[in-house]
Structure formats: structure tokens, C-alpha cells
């Protein structure tokens, strides 16, 4: 029987082992899904000005005119969105997944983006110091074995007066998927260890057979019926 895992950290062994798991998972299931389109602002300085004003900086100096920006954990497209919003910036997009970076690179080439560099690397091994004016890290650090250690690496990479945009998932919105994941571990492989392939096969069958008009059916349908679902 799988042990109780209230914090959903069953697979955490070390920083390196979780990095390997993440790299393998997102190579197989690159995320986010590919968008139907990318938007381009007509005013190339709009995003920089708006963020500075959000920070109470009406002189627009917190993020300079030609900033260095790091999208830490960029996935398939966040670095592209950032490069389009900040055409005068130099953007670095980092991710563990080579598949995600390949998708990002192909889209960037098709869009003619020239202010973006991509790097396959773990945020836990990144060795940047006082380099970036603005770092974007959204929905990433909580997927690491030690989020505090990951955050410290990111903080070191900021210039002393740099800006960090950070987002982590809140526990409330993940009650349903985490409960479903833990139920699969109990009902699926019936092993003392996690067998991903067995659990994945069981999960797909269970989702296909879900009764209609249930909480879980409504949750899954949001993704199955998305315009950009794959």
C-alpha cells in the first residue's frame, strides 16, 4: 500500500532525482500546450511601462529600456510571450525539457524573434549572479525538491535592484487533482512503489469511463474541451 502523502512529496528523493523526473515528464508531456496564436503589442514599450507603474515607479526606471530578462522555467512558450512583449530586451529562457525548448525555438524562428536565447538547464544548477533586471518564474519552483533552494538560486541571479515576478500554485486549487492522483496510486498498480506507466494506463481508462455530471468530470472536461487541447 502506498504510504499517506499529504504533502504530495512521495517521489522526492533528492534535488537531482526530482530534476530528472521533471526533465523526463516534460519531455514526454511538454507544457503549456501550443497556443493558437501569439499576440504582438503595437507599442514596443507598453509592457515595460505598465510593470514599472504597477510597482509605483512613474519614472519607469525599475525595469530599464533595454533590460536583461530571465524566464526561469520557460516551458514551451513563456519565453516567446516575453520576447514579444519586450522587443528591446535580451531574454534568456531556461528549462529542463529539451522537447519544450525545441518547440519554443521552432516557434521563435517562425515568428522571426531575435532577442531570445534558450538554455537547457536546471534552475538548481544555474550559476548566474547579479545579472538580470527582471526575472519571471511562474508555476515552477514548487515542482522542485527544495523550492527554497531553487528560489535562492533565482534571487542571486537578480541585480541588487532587480524585479522578481514569482507565482506558486495555491493548495486550494489543487485539492481535486492531488486527491485524484493519490486515489490512482491506491487503486492503480497496487505496488509499494509508484509505477507510472501502469498508473497512466489506468488513469486514461478511468477518465474515459467517468460518470457525467460529477466534480471530477467537470474538472477534466475543462481541459478536454479547451480550444488548445492536444
Helices and strands in order:
Blueprint: H1 15-28, H2 46-54, E1 68-72, H3 78-85, E2 90-95, H4 98-111, E3 116-120, E4 132-138, H5 147-157, E5 158-167, H6 175-187, H7 196-208, H8 215-224
Parallel strand pairs: 1-2, 1-4, 2-3, 4-5
Task: Kindly summarize this structure in a few lines.
The chain is of the alpha/beta class.
The top level CATH class name of the largest domain: Alpha Beta
- One letter per element, helices H and strands E, the order comes to HHEHEHEEHEHHH
How many individual β-strands?
5
Give the strand order of the largest sheet, numbering strands 1, 2, ... along the chain: 3-2-1-4-5
The CATH topology of the largest domain is Rossmann fold
Fraction of residues in helices?
40-55%
Q: Quick one: overall form?
A: globular
Give the CATH H-level superfamily of the largest domain.
Vaccinia Virus protein VP39
Average the pLDDT over all residues and give the rounded result.
Answer: 90
How large is the radius of gyration?
A: 20 Å
Structural class: alpha/beta
Uncertain segments of ≥5 residues (pLDDT<50)?
Answer: none
The CATH architecture of the largest domain? 3-Layer(aba) Sandwich
Distance between the termini: 33 Å
What is the percentage of strand-forming residues? 5-15%
Query: In the residues, how many domains can be counted?
Result: 2
Number of helices: 8
Give the biggest beta sheet: 5 strands, parallel
Amino acid at each position: 500500500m502506498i504510504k499517506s502523502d499529504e504533502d504530495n512529496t512521495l517521489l522526492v528523493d533528492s534535488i537531482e532525482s526530482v530534476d530528472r523526473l521533471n526533465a523526463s515528464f516534460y519531455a514526454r508531456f511538454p507544457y503549456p500546450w501550443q497556443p493558437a496564436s501569439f499576440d504582438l503589442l503595437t507599442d514596443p514599450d507598453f509592457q515595460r511601462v505598465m510593470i514599472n507603474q504597477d510597482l509605483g515607479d512613474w519614472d519607469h526606471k525599475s525595469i530599464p529600456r533595454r533590460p536583461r530578462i530571465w524566464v526561469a522555467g520557460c516551458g514551451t512558450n513563456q519565453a516567446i510571450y516575453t520576447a514579444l512583449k519586450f522587443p528591446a530586451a535580451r531574454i534568456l529562457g531556461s528549462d529542463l525539457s529539451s522537447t519544450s525548448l525545441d518547440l519554443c525555438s521552432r516557434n521563435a524562428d517562425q515568428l522571426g524573434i531575435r532577442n531570445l536565447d534558450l538554455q537547457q538547464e536546471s534552475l538548481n544548477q544555474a550559476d548566474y549572479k547579479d545579472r538580470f533586471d527582471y526575472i519571471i518564474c511562474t508555476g515552477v519552483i514548487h515542482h522542485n525538491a527544495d523550492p527554497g533552494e531553487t528560489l535562492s538560486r533565482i534571487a542571486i541571479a537578480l541585480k541588487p535592484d532587480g524585479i522578481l515576478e514569482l507565482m506558486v500554485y495555491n493548495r486550494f486549487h489543487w485539492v481535486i487533482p492531488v486527491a485524484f492522483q493519490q486515489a490512482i496510486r491506491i487503486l492503480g498498480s497496487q505496488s509499494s512503489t509508484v509505477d507510472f506507466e501502469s498508473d497512466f494506463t489506468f488513469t486514461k481508462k478511468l477518465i474515459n469511463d467517468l460518470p457525467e455530471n460529477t466534480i471530477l468530470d467537470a474538472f477534466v472536461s475543462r481541459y478536454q474541451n479547451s480550444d488548445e487541447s492536444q
